[in-house]
Amino acid sequence: MSAIGIDITGKQFPARAGAPAREIFRDFRLDVAAGEFLVLLGASGLGKTTLLNIIAGLDTDYRGAIRFEGAPPRIAYAFQSPRLLPWRTVLENVALVLPSGAEGREAARAMLADVGLAELADAYPERLSLGQQRRAALARAFVLRPDVLLMDEPFVSLDEASAHRLRDLLRRLIIRHPATVLFVTHDSREAAALASRIVRLEGTPVHIARDIRVDLGAAERGSPARLQAFLVAAGLAEPEALSDEV
Ligand SMILES: Nc1ncnc2c1ncn2[C@@H]1O[C@H](COP(=O)(O)OP(=O)(O)OP(=O)(O)O)[C@@H](O)[C@H]1O
Ligand SMILES: [Mg+2]
């Protein structure tokens, strides 16, 4: 696990094909403590994916610095789409991020069992449902034993029951393999169900509009009504005039 100091003094995308230049970040600072589960909430197009890309080192075209405490961390990145290679089996997709050899394949197989995909290890991704593909993507992220885990809307487009099961799975994986997590979502209830801290982003360039510690127990996190109550109290949701939850 590793603390992260984010200090982006400037980040722009140049004008292209009719769209004007955009300044995404200016003097943006965010310190993430080791072991924190930080959820970034914010509207579409604000720069959330850009921020994860910068932290991951995939986008180096910015001014500023990302500092990791201690030794250089192992970073895993679960993208918004699962991005499995269609010509490789599920097992090969997970083992791909490890040094090749029997040891890596065994670690990948064990991780697939942990996410409930043991039986599909030798299948190709096209046979998997979206929920199963997202499980495989989780396995590929955790098999690295990351110090830092970046997750960009990893459960989007799933029905609520599947998303709920994947959130439970993620919680169990994090307990077993602690990491500093940055998790992007549009869903404030998902944020409250998972986060130790929620940061709401707004504006262009982006600023931090809310920074909220989340200290909920397991029972509260499992109850949609109590999550909603927390969100309303924290100013992250409007009270619902009509609700079928009690
Ligand atoms: N390579 C690029 N070139 C030009 N503009 C870009 C590029 N990548 C992103 N942008 C623009 O930068 C802004 C931020 O994009 P980004 O993908 O980081 O937003 P986001 O917060 O992740 O949105 P969403 O919630 O829809 O995923 C958007 O306006 C987007 O159009
Ligand atoms: Mg995005």
Automatic annotation (TrEMBL):
SMART domains recorded: AAA
MF GO annotations: ATP binding; ATP hydrolysis activity
- Stretches assigned to coiled coil: none
List, for all copies, the residue spans of the domain called ABC transporter: 8-228
Q: Which family does it belong to?
A: Belongs to the ABC transporter superfamily.
Q: Which organism is it from?
A: Ancylobacter tetraedralis
Pfam families for the chain: ABC_tran
Q: Does the keyword Transport apply?
A: yes
Protein name as catalogued: NitT/TauT family transport system ATP-binding protein
Name the keywords, alphabetized: ATP-binding, Nucleotide-binding, Transport
Q: Which PANTHER family match?
A: ALIPHATIC SULFONATES IMPORT ATP-BINDING PROTEIN SSUB 2, TAURINE IMPORT ATP-BINDING PROTEIN-RELATED
